[in-house]
Amino acid sequence: MNRVEEKPAGPTEESPGRRTRPVLLGIVGDSAAGKTTLTNGIVNIFGAERVTAVCTDDYHRYDREARKELDITPLNPKCNYIDIMEQHLKLLSLGEPILKPVYGHSHGTLDAPQLVEPREVVVVEGLLGYHTKNMRDCFDVKVYLDPPEALRRHWKMQRDTSKRNYEREQVLADLDKREPDSEAFIRPQRQHTDIVVRFHSPGPSQDVDPASLHVRLVLRPVLNHPYLVDLAEKTNVDGLQPIRLELSRDAGKPVDILEVEGALSPEAATMVESVIWEGMGLDDHDLDRDAIGLFQDGNDTLRSESLALTQLLLVSQIAKAHTTT
User: Fold this and answer.
1) What per-residue confidence (pLDDT) applies to 259?
2) Is the same domain home to 88 and 198?
3) Closest residue by Cα to residue 312 from 259, 268, 256, 274
């Protein structure tokens, strides 16, 4: 009989310079910071058949009623299965399937678990994705969403009253109750990320057209963004600078700061897209270019130029990681 040679377990390289294990993108931030909107955009650009989206909020230990009785918030690590979350992130990073718990946000229930098969890209969004070093080490790109608190509270009020069966007074009370845990457990994760994304209103009111929001990106030097100087220079028209790049410091460390106005002209928006698209060779990655910058606002599909730029920066980093051994 011929001896059958066993294949080694785990991910293998199909060809030099290209890996078979997935690229893990993390999107972390406080409740209603915009994580799901950004995640859905990445899924649409790459295509649902190429992306697995996982929410770490599914790892809640208690349902909504039990949390009330225990007087604990879902932002507290003790309210979550952190050890299982760590294990599952490691398995996903190796291309292995997981049996993931499911939390029903509409009614605050713990539902039946679900088998998750990692695809080419795995987007992991939630409250506590970077809580431990073991978890952080699983990611190729780590993003933190950091909107101004007034805007986040406005978004949370809109979402929780329209989609999660809360009354306005309940949302306000919940925000106040969660604040100590936001300060203790959510915001400290910001320092461990590669990109900090801050969508913000162009004026004092938070009740504005979401398509007009500006964005401020803190880009730490752990990732390469070689096209950003070109981006700022080529969109500088007649002394107007809708995109500005400067060196700065964040938490005492050097960073690049990219400021983008939400109301970019069509010409500037096209220039931005072309600089990144061509600079990173994104034509080679079979992406849906028409999906960039689109998001849902109720039943309406809108486009935001600041969101488009943010998505492109993330897509370029995912594409780069995908071709790196």
Assistant:
1) 93
2) no
3) 274
